[in-house]
Amino acid sequence: MNDAENNVLNNIPVENKPSVPAGLENSETKDIVDYLFSNGNRLMTATGAPLELPRDTQGLIAYFSGGEIIISRTHRYDGRVLAFLDLLKARGRAMRVPFYSDLGLVSAIYKSYDARLGGTARVSRDYDNQMQKDFVDIVARAAAQKVSDIHIEVGDQTTIYFRIDGSMQPVLEYNSQWGESFVRAAFASSDMSNANYAQNEYQSAQKDGRTPLRGTKDLYLPLGILSIRMQFNPIAFGSRYVVMRLLYDNPSEGIKTEQEFGEYEQRLLMRLRAFPTGLVIVAGPTSSGKSTTLVRNMSLMLKERHYEINMITVENPVEQKIFGAHQMPVVNTTNEGEREGKYTEALAAALRSDPDTLMVGEIRTLAAAQLTVRGALSGHNVWTTLHANSAMAALTRLLDLGIESFKLKEETLMRGLISMRLFKKLCPYCRERLIDHPEHPAYQRVMDAFGELGLRQVYIRGAGCKECKGTGTLGRIKAGEIIITNSEFLRLALAGNTDGAVRYWLEDMDGRTLKEAAMSLMLQGIIGVDELERWVGLLDRPGVY
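Predicted structure:
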């Protein structure tokens, strides 16, 4: 990137002098760091320095007394970076042309700073309490970006990733000692966990957002976070791998209107919500939108029925608040067997509590499946989720768990099957037409499927711009398939005639597959061909059926 481009992007005047000389741009990290600290140059954004930055922002930008500015390439449009550059301008600080690098260089600068001070830069802090504050700070940053999961990998160094719109994005790097302390602090802060932290064991924990971090009196998770579900894993060639699932307390959090199904699917969902009894299954892989779809439809059902029904949910854990529902959590336990036992116990209790509608967070075991089916057979309206690849596969999954096929043959019991995926939406400001890229792997497949007209309608991800913060995408959108069953469809499907059942659904029931729904979005320019083929297969191959 040249100087003019930097000035336009940041709208901030800079000296016409590079932060890193051209001859050093491709040098080893150590050589660049040594240059930046040479001739008495001081790191002004370090802890305790005149322009001290919060630790999470230190992972993105470094500023030196000589005007040198080093910025993480993947965070050039980050609001904290732009705000700091504005601050430098307002204070009249010297500013050279920023040097955009990977996160490793920015991290190395701060590590070198600590080493040059003999490691005393942060020793004065109350370290344990500081690590808990770091935990809250990183969660707050993730929540501000509507992150679904935080991944922490501790090895020779610590790398923190955010899952945003389904993609893993590296955001921070620290040394391994910091990472190990951070992971321990996260575990120690939880409300429900194993008794003791064990680095070489698989462990889980959960932190409730309504109570202070364990061991503190006034340190809470950020507002808007209902709870955090944490999984701690040992890894080869490393120390620890931790995944934190953020659960928001607002059912609409992260469910923007543009992410929802199209009009065709919305009509089918409205019809399913209108049935007074029967079982509806929402299927899909992890992070496909099952839980948000379930919560949204339960909220809509309550509203459509004027909050005059008794809705009970059984969840492990409760992920989102549903206004008007009685939500029953399954207490976190020390092992999977005990956890499933408690889950079954909660389900049985819910069925004895006079429900009109029962929402079961997920069916994982035969016992849970049997109770769920029993609830539908006894005249209740039951909605649940399953890990399955397609709407049709949800039936197969129930059979695999051990449910007898004869119990599923009645359409008054087996009401609906839903499957979905979340697709990244192309940034409309920088997307590029596929027809201008004949070298693209999918070019010929699109040509064969849709002809030249299709080539002109199909787009691919662009290089990124200020609107999408350099990612080429803006949010996600749901596409799915919904089957409102009838007796003939169930007869074919449960007899093992999958091809016949699918053909009947598409031809006689006016069905539409997930792949067809995704192709419609692609031809509208909403999603790219790469995203379509990532989730539903190559254009020249059949779908999951």
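Summary: Residues 127-144 form the longest helix (18 residues).
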